[in-house]
Structures are given as C-alpha cells and as structure tokens.
Amino acid sequence: GKGACERWWGTHQPDDFLLGVMLGKMDQARRTPKWQEEAGKYIPMPLTWLNQRRWEDDYVVLSKPQRERLPL
C-alpha cells in the first residue's frame, strides 16, 4: 500500500498544520483498546485511515498501555 498512500498524499497535499493534526490523532489512536488488542490486529490499513479521514475521529485513549493477560 505504500504506492497508493504516496498517490493519496500527492493528490491531497496536506499542509503542515494538517500533518500535525494527523500525527496527533495517530498518537491518540495507537493508545486505544482496538489498536492495542491482539498485538495490533485491528489497526486500519494506512490507505484506509487516509481515505476515511480517520484523523477527524474522536478517540478514547487508555492512560496506560494494556498488556495481554497471561493465563495463570
């Protein structure tokens, strides 16, 4: 998907402000339960994240990263 993301970037040409917003939202997203579940199984593909404008989403973040619970 690297080429498709490069084409998206070339077409939309986000400015520095939007890039800052995107990086901040990505930082929030990586701390959500879905992104941490099953070692990142539910992290969206980068092109999907871009096409769906996921930087506009509201994320509920965890204060501390969750660890998978090991059976006793």
What does this protein look like?
With 72 residues, the protein is mostly helical. It is 49% helix and 0% strand. It is built from four helices and no strands. The protein has helices spanning 2-12, 16-29, 33-36, 46-51. The radius of gyration is 14 Å and the shape is globular. The model has no long low-confidence stretch (mean pLDDT 87).
Helix/strand order: HHHH
Strand percentage lies at under 5%
Helix content: 40-55%
Number of strands: 0
Average pLDDT level: 87
Radius of gyration: 14 Å
- Shape by Cα distribution: globular
Distance from first to last alpha carbon: 40 Å
Strand count, sense and barrel status of the largest sheet are:
none
**Tally of contiguous helical segments:** 4
The assigned structural class equals mainly alpha
Low-pLDDT ranges = none
List keywords for this structure.
globular, mainly alpha, 72 residues
In short:
The chain has helices at residues 2-12, 16-29, 33-36, 46-51. By secondary structure, it is mainly alpha-helical.
